[in-house]
Fold this protein.
Amino acid sequence: MNDPGLLFRLIRRDWRNGEMRLLVLAMVLAVSAVTAVGFFTNRVERALELQAAEVLAADLTIDSSRPLPELLMHEAERRGLRTARSLSFPSVIPHRERLQMVEVKAVSDTYPLRGELRIRPAHGAPEQPAAHPPRPGALWVSPELIGGLGLHIGETLSLGRSRLKVSAVLSRDTGQGGNLFRLGPRVLISLDDIPDTGLVTPASRVRHQLLIAGPRDAIEAYRGWAGHNLPTGARLQSMHNARPELRNALDRGRRFLALAAVTTVLVAGAAVALASRRFMERQSDTSAILRCLGATQTFMRRLLLTRLGVITLVTGSLGTLAGYLAQTALARLVGEWFTSELPAPDLHPLALGLGAGLITLTGFTLPPLLRLARVPPLRVLRRDLGAPPPAFWVVGGAALAALALLILWAADDLTLAATVGGGALLALTLLLATARLLVWLLAPLRGRGGAAWRYGLAGLARNPSLTAVQLTSFGLGLLALLLLAVVRIDLVAAWQRTIPEQAPNRFLINIQPDEVEAVSRFLREARLSGAGPYPMVRARLTHINGRAVLPEQYPEGRPRRLLTREFNLSWARDPQPGNRVLQGAWWGDEAATVPLFSVEQGLAEALGIALGDHLTFDQAGIEVSARVSNLRTVKWDNFQPNFFVVATPALLQSRPGSYITSFYLPPGREALATELVRRFPSVTVIDVSSIMNHVREIMDRGALAVEYVFLFTLTAGLLVLYSGIQASRESRRQEAAILRTLGLTRRTLALAVGTEFLFLGMLAGLLASLCATLTGWLVSTRVLELDYQLNPWIWLAGPAAGGIGIGLFGLLATYPLLLRPPLRVLRAE
Amino acid sequence: MAVSERVTMPNGGRLTILDRVGLRLDPGEAVAILGSSGSGKSTLLGLLAGLDQASEGEIRLFGHDLGALDEDARARLRAGRVSFVFQSFQLLPGMTALENTMLPLELAHDRSARSGAERALAHVGLSARLHHYPSQLSGGEQQRVALARAFAARPGLLFADEPTGSLDRETGVRITELLFTLREETGTALLLVTHDEQLAARCDRRLLMEAGRLGAQP
């Protein structure tokens, strides 16, 4: 019985006659969906990262207040990475007896490495991308400086000892990096002009920056190297620790894609499970005959395992190829939405696709498939005999383990995996329990009503396991379709709502206490709606519970960075909009008398601050100390001024500080910003619209990508529905033939079948609506941290789509069986 | 062989299907077991072929005690030496007539399985239908393929369970002729289970099964 030739001949015969087709189709779909989604999300994620990298003007930057050692740049270049350098420092530009505080940024001629500079060659001229940064001797100025000083293009300005010619208006500067707070409008010059200005001396307050860009792996390798070679005080910055608004958008985009990938994996897995069930049913007779003719269990096991191996290999290769082609097509469709071409995918999704295929097939089909080896040969005489059912825990355990592995793999995020996996398990339990309940409720009706009724609705009770399989598969298929709607319509909309149409796009900082009233009045009169103004006090954290806080006590990365800089503290009686207290309570009347702190949750986690801890800050040489009375979350992406630490007025009201506010400046009213700068020279206007646009672009493109990814879920969902309908085909064929022999008309039979599918579809749709709503709510609140609004349409769409779609689809698929002459069906048996 | 077969009922009681049945089949001999439906004929056939095990007694097939062999050993014993013809044909729907006929030869590692199967099919008059699937054949043709499959490996023993039960009278007669012609040519022993008196009349011996007990037909 050890004849590989025979094994392959038998498998080839199975393949040719279509026994394996549905299983193979489901497998190819599962593998291609996982591969395509893997490749595609991989590319989109990288494109989104590149898009986000434009804010840094690089993939990685190294910042320091001291000149950076040449070694850092040489090492990057040695690794084939592109580099650029910049210096930023505050300075003063004299113009017609006025002095204007500016932030000078001097850049090397390779700047920017990511994104582009956009300029207007003349004030009011159309914006255009700059082919290169300012040449030596040239100076580009931000629009508010043009307005504020009344400058003209071609005019010459003094910067230190140099005279530089204003040659363009800098309308969009990439590379705003992590710090929006600067002391004045920006001017951009060439790095070559710096020595002549004489402004940079060892005593100057200069921010030195090395910008690096290149392939992801090389960047990661360099980051690892640089981590050990950074001089004291220097910090590495990438999109992982860039501005919270961008980081949030990017993270959410990733989670959305992962959610789509996980859903696809789940539904494709269900399709495989259903297809393999049908395959095994059809194989029982074959196994019995083969065993009757002398095939041993060992031979049968070898045959089944070889078959499994062949299916995995074939579907793995076909699926991976189809997945790769599909993602290429998707990337073409989506590519034009990205500013640059989508980066080429790396090979990691290839392993994902093949691995997913193997795991799906093994987990869902191996235990029941191996059972086929034990089909008793006596089945040839007694058709009621089947293989002994495998222990429930073996089948359930294998399927659950496979699902858990797949979900975790696709999600790459424990919370997301747990939420979606839990949701799927809940949906499965609910569907199975409802099917059982339905069978139980309908059982008493079996003997009542007309033939059509008995054959149709009441007939659902005649085969409980088939009803369970059908209701579950219809429910899962519809759930996939409804989730598409929930994610596409509700969750993506909720994501996009996080930045309202009129979200603040300008920040005003350095508002002195005596200017607050006048600035507010100016904004009110100009009918510019804003948030705040909020007081702001800069201070450095020095002690936690009386223990000195030293950066080196903390791990590398964010905690250390947080401690090397000053915090912007605020004080307030009431919490800001978008802040939610997680632990402790916001202060009440004690705000005026008791010194207390409220700390942002993420900061507390990073620095190990707990509720009730005593924090001490050094504020301009004075110690301010208080207890942490609550921890809260902050909506960083709402483009409002947000603070890590807020104190009671009692603690900080008397401390010297300034105010900050933000407002929405509609397009076309930019002159107001110029007027504001003219009226309040010490106030700095910061334009965050470019960052906001970046965030919006990431959202739009992420949403589009999610939609395309869900096409795979949709296909898998349809396959699940088809498999569900096919599940009852064999028994229906036989029953229909007998009933027709007994005199039931085709019309009555069709009516009965239609009623049954309509009812099952509506019920499955209703359950799917419930599961989709629950999953939507869970995912939005737990994973995406978005406000979820219940969508009433789902409750209508689910049962309607289920009833009509499955009723019609089921009838169409079954009708040909009713047309076949009953004698032929009965004789073929 | 002498066996009894009892099964446990859902209510815990024991139901006797076969009661101390004794039978010996010599090489080349044809024995018919007659009996009404439910008399235990098919159960006996299943036990004799080693498709199932008796609860009591001993069955020896080609000198081997089936009770002492596990399922795989019984399967190995059957391969190429025992064949079957069933009322419902039991052809594999996914294989052509030729492939169905090749199957027992392949399982017995016969290197000339294809030519053997082609000869067997030619013998039953189906040379033109080699590559047809069971669904493309009539009932009589399907049973002829089953006969070709049964005799292709020139087995020592053939078990036939109502081989004409699904066929019309005329076709049934032709299949009966074919069955006995092939048996004579190959010298295969035949154990035939039927309630067709005419079919049974073609056998060397006829036994009657009644309520699980076997006796000579009067």
Observations:
- The CA atoms of residues 164 and 172 of chain B lie 5 Å apart.
